[in-house]
Amino acid sequence: MVTMPRFTPLLVLVAALLHAMLVSPAVMAQDLPQVYITDPARLAAVRERVRAGDPSLQRAMDELILLAEASMDKPMISVVEKPKAPPSGDFNDYVSLSPYWWPDPSKPDGLPYIRRDGEINPERYEYDVDKLGTFGETVRWLGFAYYFTGEERYAREAVKRVRHFLLDPETRMNPRVQYGQFIPGRNEGRKYGIIETLRLRWVPDAISLLAESEAMTEEDLAGARQWFADYARWLDTSEFGVGEREGPNNHGTWCTAQTAYFALAGGDEELVRKMAALIPDRIAAQIEPDGRQPHELARTRAMDYSEFNLRGHTEMAVLAERVGIDLWSFETEDGRSLERAYAFLMPYLSGEKPWPYKQISDPKHDYYAQSLRRMAIATNDPVYEETVASLSDLTGAGRVYLDLIISLPEDFPKP
């Protein structure tokens, strides 16, 4: 066992007060948004700069508007739109095919399917995973676009989709993933399907930003938050949720972080604390003293998965901060920590060193930048920003995240 993270409500309060001193009176005078994996004071400060015409933010705003306008044109979708009911008989249940499983070419009917790690079977997109992704992306970009621009048409479209996908009895997704990542010829669903609801990251934040709009009613807001509370409870108590949370690799990390995120959005801070208490043992088990993550290095996209697991830890640390727990500085006696894991990984992320493990696809720099930025903010160390600066293809969503959503404090030391 390892020591528990220390509870630091006083330090969190002091940090919040110091940060508030850096925010302009115009921002302090308004209510800060109720967001969870986004810093509310910095988000409000960035919006003030956007509305004042700060030219340094124009590129990111242009990208955000492009994403929002594209979202306006996407079809209204629902998980009930599938040709066959799940085993429950309820079309409102989410169903997805496991991504790396393919028909066995040696069998006439292809059953049971066989695994090809890192290679996605296109049959997967016949089920609900793309619908979940489309909903998540659409509400995310429309919600943030509304917040920064104040344009009600973005809010109206986002709220319509929230009602359709989460609230309306005929079209809503049930708040559970009992039939995710099924494998033909092997099972009807697996705990690994839970990781697919990462496509709902940022949705509770975006929904909260829509609370300012004329389109979002109190009933809509309460209903959406209840959906996430119900899903967090299912994650915490179901056989699949418990099993996925106990996974030794990124699946366990992200199940824990998802549970905490959706619980916080649903108002259950005690469940957030329960998830935060699991992280020290997870860091001790996943990260070697030299910073390697063996479970992730064994994958065919080892760089992506190494960063992916750490990104889950950084978001969990943000959520833990919201309830007064410090996970950023946790370290085992033999030196296992988030900082040690990043110290191992950063020379490879930046291209300073050639990656010595498998990586069968191009690295996902837009995602890497998010977790590096969070580490920079948490540690106040510009070395992480130096690595961000070395990532050359940060366009589109990557630029929006860095300049608008996970922005640096104004007093951050220059790299």
From TrEMBL:
Positions of transmembrane segments: none
SUPFAM superfamilies: Chondroitin AC/alginate lyase (SSF48230)
UniProt keyword annotation of Lyase present: yes
UniProt signal peptide: 1-29
Keywords: Lyase, Signal
Domain Alginate lyase: 79-355
Protein name per the record: Poly(Beta-D-mannuronate) lyase
